[in-house]
Known about the structure:
- Pathway: Amino-acid biosynthesis; L-methionine biosynthesis via salvage pathway; L-methionine from S-methyl-5-thio-alpha-D-ribose 1-phosphate: step 1/6.
- GO terms for molecular function: S-methyl-5-thioribose-1-phosphate isomerase activity.
- By secondary structure, the protein is of the alpha/beta class.
- The chain has two domains: 4-127, translation initiation factor eif-2b, domain 1 (Four Helix Bundle (Hemerythrin (Met), subunit A)), CATH 1.20.120; 132-333, Translation initiation factor eif-2b, domain 2 (Rossmann fold, 3-Layer(aba) Sandwich), CATH 3.40.50.
- It has eleven helices and 16 strands.
- It has helices spanning 36-44, 51-67, 72-83, 90-103, 108-135, 161-170, 187-199, 211-216, 242-252, 283-286, 329-333; strands at residues 4-5, 9-12, 15-19, 30-32, 143-146, 176-180, 203-206, 222-225, 229-230, 236-239, 256-259, 287-290, 293-296, 309-312, 319-322, 325-327.
- The protein has a seven-stranded mixed β-sheet with strand order 7-6-5-8-11-15-16, with helices on both faces. A four-stranded antiparallel β-sheet has the order 1-2-3-4, with helices on one face.
- The longest helix is centred in the middle third of the chain and has 28 residues, at 108-135.
- The radius of gyration is 19 Å and the shape is globular.
- The relative contact order is 0.12.
Amino acid sequence: MQTLLARSLKYTNNELSVLDQYLLPHQEHWHVCTSVKQMQSLILSLKVRGAPLIGLAATLLVAHLAEQGDSKECLAKAIDDLEATRPTAVNLMYCMAKMRIALVQEDYVSALVGMAEQLFNEDVALCEAMATLGADLVNPGDNILTHCNTGALATAGIGTALGAIYKAHQQQKHIHVWVDETRPLLQGGRLTAYELAQWEIPYTLICDNMAASLMRARQVNKIFVGADRIAANGDFANKVGTYNLAVLAKYHQIPFYVVAPETTLDRTCPHGEAIPIEQRDSQEVIGVSGSFGACQWAPSKAKVYNPAFDVTPANLVTGWVLNSGVYSQQDVLAGIFK
């Protein structure tokens, strides 16, 4: 397989490495991944995260195992096991479906390697297209609110929602970004703030429950978020807390945009209620741990509700920014995603 380099994923010298996003921003540690069980663990522990990146990391591992001589049967099982790791993000399913097609080819090793390279390069191009279209929606001087992390750390390219923000900054639109810290695992505070600082984009970090006061004070001009799955009717799943922002944006009449590649669109999913929502470990809510240390504030036996995602109804969305265009509610009602 050729050399492939992204911000948090790389394949060089016959070795697959992933950046440990759980340790950011204080430590940059790369894991060399050689097995399905290891990749599953990295994904489940959010060391590898971001819907596009999860799919690509799994894809590169399957191609690597094929080059290492794994049998067709072992590779088929690897694809099935990896696909089952995260149930909500459809990009993983998209990538594994593509790898199944490659696996039935006569020269399946070359086909798997070629497909992995194609999917990686495709994501770079999708990010560029989304970023360009999203940046066109940004006016000079805008204050943009975003949630979770949707930048280069989560993709092979420059990102989805954060990629559009990055592109607007490159166009010298003098923007400012409000960054939700994104409880409970602080992907905004740890990762989005980290990327914005590297890109030298002005930003201010806020707790998730501060967004409403900012909107009431007219300090938010637009909201850009990503997606882990978009249903055929336009409903979408994203990091929990996104639905809160959409409701608040509707009340305060603030444009609310979803930025995602077409690989996140699930035409077989009729609506948001059909999207499976992953429940995560209670330990993520009763305390916090990471490269910054560990602290527990709730009783050890506290009952916890900890969905990884929530679903935002299509009627709260101003526009869907895909790599193929910007779509309105009228477009979606006309069935463009079906």
